[in-house]
Amino acid sequence: MSSGIVSVYVTFASAENAARIGRQMVEERLAACINVLGPALSIYRWQGKVEEANEVAALFKTTAGCAEILAKRLAEVHGYENPAVTVWPIEHAPAAYVQWVRAQVR
Questions:
Q1: Which chain positions lie within coiled-coil regions (predicted)?
Q2: Residue 45 burial by CB count (10 A; 0-12/13-18/19+): exposed, middle or buried?
């Protein structure tokens, strides 16, 4: 059974960029919270070449109903041509936490 909330996983070029965009999404009430997780080495294929980049991973907490709106907004402000924005459903969470997330998101 789904809790009705999700985590949205996103990578950013820097912690500063993640924090700035994360704060904006919380202020816009598209997310209840962002956790900036720290440095990550990303290895990926882009435009026919294998690339390497130092990035920062982040998790946004939002409702399932707002996840698509958040993903679209992140794509608008992110800065990457094709940002990794994935939605992970949260099956189980404490009721008080679920209520808090729902109360923070429009």
A1: none
A2: exposed
pTM to 2 decimals? 0.91
CATH top-level class of 5-104: alpha beta
How far is 64 from 32, CA to CA, in rounded Å? 12
Q: Which residue has the tokens 């939605």?
A: 87
What are the residues facing 55 on neighbouring strands? Answer: 40
Q: Where are the alpha helices (DSSP H) in 35-94?
A: 67-77
pLDDT in tens, 40-71: 999 999 999 999 999 999 999 999 999 999 99
